[in-house]
Amino acid sequence: MRNPIPFLLIGLFFGTGIGFIWAGSQGVTFDGHDHVEHSATGTTDHASMDHSPFDAPKGPAAPTLAITLHPDTMSGLNLQIQTTNFTFSPESVNQANTPNTGHAHVYVDGKKLSRIYGNWFHITGLASGEHLIKVELNANSHGVITVDGAPVAVEQTVTIP
Fold first, then answer.
1. Buried-most residue among 73, 76, 103, 155 (CB within 10 A)?
2. Rounded distance, CA 148 to CA 135, Å?
3. Nearest residue to 33 via CA among 45, 24, 25, 22
4. Model pTM?
5. Backbone phi, then psi, for 92, in 5-degree steps?
6. Which CATH entry fits the domain spanning 62-160: 2.60.120.10, 3.40.50.1370, 2.60.40.10, 3.40.50.150?
7. Residue 26 to residues 3, 39, 42, 78, 99: CA-CA distances in angstroms?
8. What ranges do the domains of the chain cover?
């Protein structure tokens, strides 16, 4: 059974302030992997999960992905995720893969930041300098969605003053 108490990570220092990451009951990201319960039974046995790539249909039915980074007037960046032929399906996570459905993973400088179930995500706490933002589409089993063997993923470099 899922522990109803969410996790709160504090003490991450970014710039001159303290950053807080609310991991919630959806999972916590450490060492580049989403440490989340992978089934209704509450298992965290990652070896039992199939993170293999999931090949989507080719041609006009193939999913596409684009991102736009918008400076937020208060802090950070607003990541806009644009897809075609793809449906975010949080209700199906950890279930059987269905073509052109799933979720996205967002990475900053090669480290997984979060799993995303929609078209917008707020990124905060980036230090001054260049950062590589990467978004990839993932199947319900968490494997990257591919089209003809190529991951459906995009990268964009952003410079924080």
1. 103
2. 18
3. 45
4. 0.69
5. -110, 5
6. 2.60.40.10
7. 10, 12, 11, 21, 23
8. 62-160
**Contact of 95 with 120, CB cutoff 8 Å:** no
Burial status of residue 88 (CB atoms within 10 A of its CB: 0-12, 13-18, 19 or more): middle
Q: For 81-128, how does the pLDDT look when each residue is reduced to its tens digit (9 = 90+)?
A: 999 999 999 999 999 988 999 999 999 999 999 999 999 999 999 999
Assign 57 a pLDDT band (cuts: 50, 70, 90): confident
Where on the phi/psi map is residue 73: left (φ > 0), alpha (ψ -120 to 50), or beta?
Answer: alpha
